[in-house]
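[Automated response] Your request has been received and processed.

Submitted sequence:
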Amino acid sequence: METHQIRYFLAACQTLNFSRAAELCEVSVPSLTKSIHKLEQQLGGHLFRRERHLTHLTDLGRLMHQHFTEVQNALDAAKADAERYENLHKARLKFGVFSTMPGRHLTSYLRALRAAAPDLRLNIWETNCEELGSALLAGDIDVAFMSATEYGERLRAIPLFQEPYFIAFAAGHRFEQMNAVPLRDISGEPYIKRLHCEFPSNLSKLGVAPPYKDVQVRYMSEREDWIQLLVSAGFGCSVMPQFLPIIEGVLIRRLVEPEVSRQISIVTVAGRPHSKPVSIAVKIAQSMPWNIEGTQTPLTTPA
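Generated structure:
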């Protein structure tokens, strides 16, 4: 027997009218009647008894109704499980994140993603934007948070929020007495330089040369925690995005003249069809209140 025969039979049991059952199943009355008749032949007895304009289940029909209801419920559950498996359940999402993505923003996003897709298996890879772009094109990751100034034609970037740059320093530094720091004022300062920093490229968009030639670079590292620990210990200052400070003792003031910011985007490969996990990842990112004050605040705020 075939699954559509069971569906037609159960519809006839529900309506006790072959015309309404055919309408419910979106088939013709002859098709439904033929399928149920074939089912009766396979089972060796009548399932329905017609008396004038009334239709009743036979004893065999009532017995089969019980069994076939269980079968249909099992089929529906199997189909639902298959759809969940195909779309999200045990699905794997390979997510790239650029190295200086604000931690509190990322955590808030991952919490929202987990609520929307609790069974999604998430692999997160952290590196610089250049390597993330290459990994996206190679298919090594599915989607990424990036802050590149340019993406080219092969990547599709959906802007999420802007993040201004600040100067970070330790307590007692002369910048502590300022409400904002003109970029020229960091000239000559001992400086802790972050490798793969996006600040120079964002600065160059404004036609301004990076200030590193005028500062005293004392230390260079990819380790954000080391950079901030050195800043908090007074070894030098460092330019960093507003929401990046995570170490107690790091003070920040906004950079001005000019003001510089970076654009955080969620990035996929242009023209590549989105899987269900990628679609959900993008949808959640677009729905996040990234710039609401009080929910995404820096560790140490300016005076």
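Summary generated for your ticket: Residues 59-87 form the longest helix (29 residues). The domain at 3-87 is CATH 1.10.10.10 (Arc Repressor Mutant, subunit A).
If you did not submit this request, please reply to this message.
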